[in-house]
Every structure is written in C-alpha cells, then in structure tokens.
Design goal:
The chain is α+β, with helices and mostly antiparallel strands. It contains seven helices and twelve strands. The protein has a four-stranded antiparallel sheet with strand order 1-8-3-6. The protein has a four-stranded antiparallel sheet with strand order 2-7-4-5.
Length: about 210
C-alpha cells in the first residue's frame, strides 16, 4: 500500500474517502494550473494536500477570486453537465490531488448513491456563498468588502495573539474584493494608522473592530 493510499483510508469523511479512493494521485507544483477555464471538463479533483484558488478571468488577464479550498475537499464538479470549465483552479502551494475521471465517478455514484446527495448539498452551499459574494460586490463599497474579508479570515494563535492563518498580498485582496491594488493599499494603510489592524509578513491581526463605514 502506498503512502497516499494509506492517507486516503484515514480520511474521516466517508464521501470524500470514497471519491479519493477512486482517483489517481497527481502532484502539482506551486503556481500550476489544475483546471483551466474553458477546457473540457473530464474529472473532479479531491485535494489531499496543499491549497488551491478558484478564479475566473477575462481576455485582458484580469482575475476575480471565487473561492479557496484546503484539504480535504474537492473541486471541478461543475463540469458534471458536460460543458466547458467555468473557472480555473491554481495550486497556491505544492498540492496533491486525487483525480477522479467521470467513468470512475459514475461507478462511485452507482455503488454509493449517498455521494450524489452530498455533492448536491455541497453545490447548494457553494452557490449560497457565491451569491453572497456577488451581493457584496454589487451593494458594498470597497471598504466594506475589505472589512468583511478581514473579519472573515481564519485565525491561529501566535505569540499570544490571533493572526490570520492565510498570508495575503494586496493584489490577492484586490482580486477577492473586486478593486484596484492601489485602493486596497490606501484602505489598509488607513486601517493601520487608525489602530484597527496590524500586518506582519502578509498576515493580519484585528486589534479592534473596523468601523461600519470609512
């Protein structure tokens, strides 16, 4: 038994365990594309190690981040309808996935119909998050979107304080909130000057709740 086969057997979530067990192990260096927007959809991917970013882009190279995923989760299920990929998925750090082709997925669904129900519920949850993000882009100003993003970051304790686990550049924040890098930089500078946040090595610490409006 390989190390990855053993790792898959240890996955606590039975649905993700069944999906991963049906796939082939693929390794992706940092920055590589796992899924390319507009390509034919031929598989979904169970993320076993690393971190990936889902994003859409236009012909001018502008990008908007749709979501991030960490182990253990899956991406690429939208191509189940046979249409081209609607977004790209990029490895933000060295990542390992189990690639599950449609033939293998169909076999899993026949043998374990509960997997289909779980995927449906996951799709509903992801659609709700996407709807919320679109509402923010349409109805919130840039400051509101940045404040919401900072408040929602997962944190870890370090040196007696809570810091964001994720490291974010100004460009990445701009992609997530649909704003320019310069605008993001100005708002973060003001938040630091006002004593609302602290930054260190691209990580954030909220010192006190950012104001409702800026």
């Amino acid at each position: 038994m390989s190390d990855w086969e053993a790792a898959i057997r240890r996955i606590a979530d039975p649905v993700l365990r069944e999906l991963a067990a049906a796939g082939c192990i693929r390794h992706y260096p940092k920055g590589s594309l796992i899924i390319r927007e507009h390509d034919p959809g031929e598989a979904l991917y169970v993320l076993l190690r690393g971190r990936v970013r889902v994003y859409a882009s236009d012909g001018a190279g502008r990008q908007v981040t749709l979501e991030h995923f960490e182990p253990v989760s899956y991406v690429g299920e939208m191509a189940l309808d046979g249409r081209p990929r609607s977004a790209s998925v990029c490895a933000q750090e060295p990542s390992v996935c189990a690639e599950v082709g449609w033939v293998q997925l169909e076999a899993v669904l026949r043998e374990h119909p509960q997997v289909l129900l779980r995927m449906l519920l996951d799709l509903i949850g992801r659609q709700r998050r996407t709807t919320g993000n679109l509402k923010d882009l349409a109805l919130m100003d840039v400051y509101g979107r940045i404040a919401r993003l900072l408040r929602g970051l997962e944190t870890v304790e370090e040196d007696g304080a809570r810091w964001s686990r994720e490291r974010l550049t100004q460009q990445e924040i701009a992609r997530r909130v649909g704003a320019s890098r310069d605008m993001v930089g100005r708002i973060l500078k003001d938040l630091r000057a006002g004593g609302y946040i602290e930054q260190r090595a691209r990580r954030f610490r909220i010192l006190r709740g950012p104001p409702a409006r800026w």
